[in-house]
Amino acid sequence: MTQATQETHARAERRALSDLFDRLGPGAPTLCAGWTTADLAAHLVVRERRVDASAGIAVKFLAPYTRSVQNQLAARPYPEVVGMFREGPLRWTPYGLVPGLDALVNTVEFLIHHEDVRRAQPGWEPRALPADLDDMLWRRLKTGGRLFFRKSPVGVVLRRVGTGDKAGAKVAEPAVVVTGEAQELLLFAFGRQDHARVTLDGDPDAVDRLMKAPLGM
């Protein structure tokens, strides 16, 4: 593993998600449609370690090759795949070569996928996050909100519960105000509307349209 030895939120989420993968086994459900824990673990390994295939995660015409590589990984022994994710990126990959890239990019990625696994299991409850992580997630929402909500058919205002913080995510009428903790707003913004503990205020039809919108990257 090439990350700095100091603890970061990305490292903590990686470790916690790896532990959860181990505990649940390869066939547990996730919030990623059609994916089990084995599929999600394989996706995370492809994303970090398979430079030849990772582009297909975002580029549509490359997606078939990415799916093929991911399926091959998912068919390998599950403890081996989870072990690769736990270990982290290889030295020569971008995540291994660029200092700070792991913390910059993977904190949100791992937190969301950690919740994809947690919230697909019965009896889940939201986690209490460290204050600095909560603040970082809110900053990410403020800077990225217009990207995350670009496909929203209605206007969106994000309101961070317990603070006076607000952020405009989509300028349009009618508008819906989405209120919650930073992690809940982030999950909502990344398309996990049905599993984010938020309140929505606005015209009922606008709320319904927002709940069904394809949000996220």
Automatic annotation (TrEMBL):
InterPro entries: CHP03085, DinB/YfiT-like, Maleyloyr_isom
Signal sequence bounds: none
SUPFAM superfamilies linked to this entry: DinB/YfiT-like putative metalloenzymes
Recorded coiled-coil stretches: none
Name this protein carries in UniProt: TIGR03085 family protein
Organism: Acrocarpospora pleiomorpha
